[in-house]
Amino acid sequence: MRETRVRYLLQQFAAGKASAQEVEEMLALLQQAKGEEELKKLVLKAKDEAEQHLTITEEEWGGMWNAIALATFRKRRVMLFMPGWAKAAAVLVVAAGIGLFMRAKKNVPQPVVVAKQQPLPHDVPPGGNKALLTLADGSTIILDSANNGALAQQGGTKVLKINAGQLSYKTGTAALGQVLFNTIATPRGGQYEVTLADGTEVWLNAASTLRFPTAFAGNTREVELTGEAYFEVAKNPAKPFHVKVNQMDVQVLGTHFNIMAYGNEPAVKTTLLEGKVTVTNNGQTQQLVPGQQAALNGTNGFTVRDVNTDLAVAWKNGLFRFKETNIREIMRQVERWYDVEVDFKALADDQDYTGIVPRTQNVSALLQMLQLTGTVHFTVEGRKITVQP
Q1: 209 and 107 in one domain?
Q2: Element (H, E) at 195
Q3: What is the rounded CA–CA span in Å between residue 248 and residue 225?
Q4: pTM above the 0.85 mark?
Q5: Does 123 fall in a domain?
Q6: Is residue 60 a contact partner of residue 83, using CB atoms and an 8 Å limit?
Q7: How many domains does the chain divide into?
Q8: Domain boundary among 312, 331, 351
């Protein structure tokens, strides 16, 4: 039973589908293996069973073996050599439930040395459920310190705090009439969930703002977003749902999608998980199907491509997920979630990283994994992180 469970978890991990809890369970079970040979046998069995169901390259399975070896024998100083069939230099590091690939942009096979993990002298805790609610009359409620229960009455709609991190709007029979607008804003280091009056659920990432009516009147439902949010829109064919993001409009009837529209990111990205959406900007329109992402980059219009949707919604599921992601993009996410300032010192942009790190851990968990690749170093002073070669 234990061996079957281990093989299943290994396959989930190799496919990039394992949750943070499954990664931790996998490592705990693997650490019970009696020696390196038994460990290798478990990994090889998982590989054989997975080949008929998963599209995983030999390079990725080789990286997995390196990861498991390092995770379970991490007290040693380890030198990882990629097998002869590796197509690029790569190292996967796993410790304490964290997975991380480092890939050089140049496809030159080479050994990678991983030194012992050194603790950072300072640390920063992760973000949490924090938001500010602004009511129609301009008054504000700090949601993270408010008690559960009724917070306000907005026309015919009750505003309720369900629990830590969740707000709900309940519309009564007398809700029609004047349209009132509320705004919920998360700070850097904050996140929050809100259920709108029509039943639509919205998860806000850090440094994001959603403006919305307390009740939806007329023939459409319209909200305005800055930052990032994941939507599960309540179906109502008679009332299309619109999300306004800068000059872009996202129209849906009922679907699941993520919008990332931070001002310091190079593109506004709409990722569709379920249903259909239509994105419009300056007269250009694109319709997406599940698994597609539309990226709007300035005046260059839309670029539509197939993507791994798990990457787009990892933040909602409590994870950082990277796939060949540049260090500067990673650190922009760090800035928003940990509410820190990041300073770069003469860092070459020639490394991409792929991996999974739980967002519930202190910033050191992510920084130390990046340091273990031997490509980057961090200094933490208060809420300032300096990045250098």
Answers
A1: no
A2: strand 190-195
A3: 10
A4: no
A5: no
A6: no
A7: 2
A8: 312
